[in-house]
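*** Backbone structure tokens ***
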Amino acid sequence: MLADVIFPTRPHRRVDCPGTEGSDGLLELAGGETCLHYNGSNVVKAASLNKWTRLQCFGHRLHLAIENAMRDPRIDRAVGICKKLVSSFSYSWRRKKELAQAQKELKLPEHALKTECPTRWGSRQAMIERVLEQQRAISQVLSTDRKARHLIPTWQDTDVLEAINKSLRPLTEFTDALSSEKYVSVSFVKPVLHLFSSSILKVNDDDPGLTTTIKTKILSYLDEKYKDPGTQELLDMASALDPRFKLRYVSEDRVAPIQARLTSEMAASASMEMGPTDPHVETAEDAPSTSKKNKTLGSFFKTAEGTTPRSSPHQEQQAVASELQSYIQCANLDSEEDPLDWWREHQRLYPRLSKLTKKYLCIPATSSPSERVFSTGGNVVTCLRSSLKPENVDRLVFLAKNL
């Protein structure tokens, strides 16, 4: 299988990934050695063989967490009635007309019912929310039809639907936000998980029993899937390099290791940039000049660029520690500001840290941006345009995504 790999210091290219033959899971690499993927066992094996850090798509994980929480006979019955109810209105123009009249009589919003898409949990929540909104109008229409009266939700079904809607409605906004491709998203994962447990999915005293069960199952599933030490370290590093969050969402026992990891990577980046020096190599300024130039007085106080003495390891270590502490102690950026703009303005002040941001903040939290590109490619290559050359397809997809 061919997969896209992004190297921090190399141009974008394709490589052959061993272990992904017949892969049915999405494999996307970013940040040098980070693999963003679905839960396919072959993709997991490929990441292990290539020694890549695995980051599971947050949107897919949240979808599986919700599906796991929905495994309840009461929920199956209530959602099944919702589907049949919506289907009965979708295929009957007479019932649609009666529903519109009932909405006017009851002064309800004139909204159409929504259908669930099995692969999108948000569509289920939208369907349930719309049924609850139009419940009186639906009951008025179906009560006049003997063959359809059994589709009217009972009070038990209504309680179940309200519990589902109360649990899932706050999560839809986070899914849409984390699926964006216009701003940094991987550094949001750790803060979002913290927000889930502290407020959004926190069990309240007035929550019904089913709502409590749904919230607990979702949190337990996410905690289980994101407890891997490698994943936790990756999320902590990305969050620490985001000037909006820094070390705010890193657990106390992980602060020291993350700072040590940042320090070591900053030092390694600086040493790679400086590279080895050979004192016997003659620089351009040391070469004899054919034309004699008059020196200015200031030139006697200026050190030649190629003969600048290298700082000692101890001095470099102090500079790295000073830069990191200065970054941590500066004021946090507003949560709605763009961290990339902030780093663009402060890269001269934090030269070593700014290089690490290019490695970590380029990682997407979900695979939605890649899937959008696939969808765009599907819209370009159709039955009527099946003879396009690959290079022309690449150009058309690029134009469609960037114009």
